[in-house]
Amino acid sequence: QTIPGMYQLVNDEVSISRLRDVDLADLLGRQQVQVNNEEILADIAGKTVLVTGGGGSIGSELCRQIARSQPKQLIIFDIYENNAYAIEQELKRNHPELNLQALIGSVRNTSRINYIMSHYQPDIVFHAAAHKHVPLMEDSPNEAIKNNVLGTYKTAQAAAANGVKKFILISTDKAVNPTNIMGASKRLCEMVVQCRTDSKTIFAAVRFGNVLGSNGSVIPLFKRQIAEGGPVTITHRDIIRYFMTIPEASQLVMTAGAMAKDGELFVLDMGKPIKIYDLAVNVIRMSGFIPEEEIKIQEIGLRPGEKLYEELLMKTEHLDKTSHKLIFVEKDAPRTREEMEATLAALREAVARYEQNHETDIVKKVMKQNVPTFKEPEEVNKTAGQSEEMRRSNAGEAGSK
Questions:
Q1: DSSP string, 50-101
Q2: How many beta carbons lie within 10 A of that of residue 41, not counting itself?
Q3: From its phi and psi, is residue 22 left (phi > 0), alpha (psi between -120 and 50) or beta?
Q4: Residues near 105 by beta carbon (within 8 Å), at least 6 away in sequence
Q5: Which residues are catalytic?
Q6: CA 36, 210, 153, 146: dihedral to nearest 10 degrees?
Q7: Phi, psi (deg, nearest 5) at residue 208
Q8: What is the pLDDT of residue 262?
Q9: For residue 298, what are the β-bridge partners?
Q10: pLDDT at position 94, please?
Q11: What is the pLDDT of residues 171-222, one digit of tens each?
């Protein structure tokens, strides 16, 4: 827990007894992004909205925001029944007026996703279903392709075939110059969406950084390690990441949905990247312990596919402003539908060879052929110190000392 600031206490603005739980936003090192809720409400109100991966960290917060925006119906679609059940029960308690439907299934199942689109006729689809863990996808690249890339393709196809008005893909900064299977798979997802400029359905993607407190992310790990007496583990002392809160991420997605016109890739200005070491120090302090004395911080080495820094923007792309000062649009030249179909065919063949003949490198090889910016992490990490992201992080650290 934390107490009010010293200035507030000295000026008798609040009582010292007003303890509150530490908010994840306290760790951001910047003001939280505020969005135009009226714009979101106008886009969602009276619409049928489908959220794939609706039980996950981002998906469930999207469902909360949508529920407050007076939709005609909200459909939660998830493969993991426990998560879907949890958010369904929460929304039933907090929004008894909501027309809510929770459905179990996989975006990899063509007939299932086609049935849901045709039966419920959603106006807007937020596609959050994806595998996201970098080391796990390094060991199971076939699943990254089947779930992330082909799942996105099948969901997009079903949306277009059934008259969905808007389809918004949730992407990640790991898609920019990726050094791992997961990031490359999400870049391919962006390509699947961007190539559909000839569709009546408006397709767009939203790219943001790490989400504080999401399932499997670093903050829950740190909290668990602190509760066990430490050590708190980090992969590298110099590693940096962009961070945002779950509500920020969800509101960005919904704002992008309201802004979307045709094939945009929306990016949030997330301020300066944060050193994971500094994040660990702050979490330990906020938990009431002295870093390195009462709770040790242990460096365990970079994981497979991990690079020292992430980027939000691809240097070759054009950046446009939007009506929101912290939201930008990148536009590169999308592939044609024919080129993308050829890529998907090559990926399907690579997955089949991987699963049938145990050709372990075939999936990565085909991904590198189709994602030209895909590099090995060692290649990127050698020159990490020269990157703009690392320089910005170090400049911020020097300024705070």
A1: EEETTTSHHHHHHHHHHHTT--SEEEEEES-HHHHHHHHHHHHHH-TT--EE
A2: 14
A3: beta
A4: 77, 79, 112, 113, 116
A5: 174
A6: -160
A7: -145, 175
A8: 79
A9: 233
A10: 97
A11: 988 898 899 999 999 999 999 999 998 899 999 999 877 777 676 678 889 9
Looking at per-residue pLDDT, the higher value among 387 and 177 belongs to 177
- Structure tokens that stand for 352 in this block: 């089949």
Is pLDDT at 82 greater than 70 in this prediction? yes
CA 144 → CA 61, 129, 185, 354, 391, distances in Å? 23, 11, 6, 12, 32
Average pLDDT, the chain: 86
Three-point CA angle 367, 372, 376, nearest 5°? 70
β-pairing, 232-234 vs 274-275, is unpaired
How is residue 54 written in tokens?
């609706």
Task: From residue 9, give the alpha-carbon distance in Å to each of 2, 4, 19, 137, 145.
Answer: 13, 7, 12, 49, 54
φ, ψ at 178 (rounded to 5°) = -65, 150
Q: First vs last Cα of the chain: how many Å apart?
A: 25
Pairing of strands 202-208, 265-268: parallel
Q: Mean pLDDT across the stretch 282-302?
A: 92
pLDDT exceeds cutoff 50 at 398: no
- What pTM value is reported for the model? 0.85
265 in Cβ contact with 207 (< 8 Å): yes
308-336, pLDDT tens digit by residue? 887 766 454 567 888 777 788 887 778 89
> What's phi and psi for 396, nearest 5 deg?
-65, -35
Residue type, 333: A
Q: Strands 100-104 and 124-127, how do they pair?
A: unpaired
Place of tokens 């010292």: 16
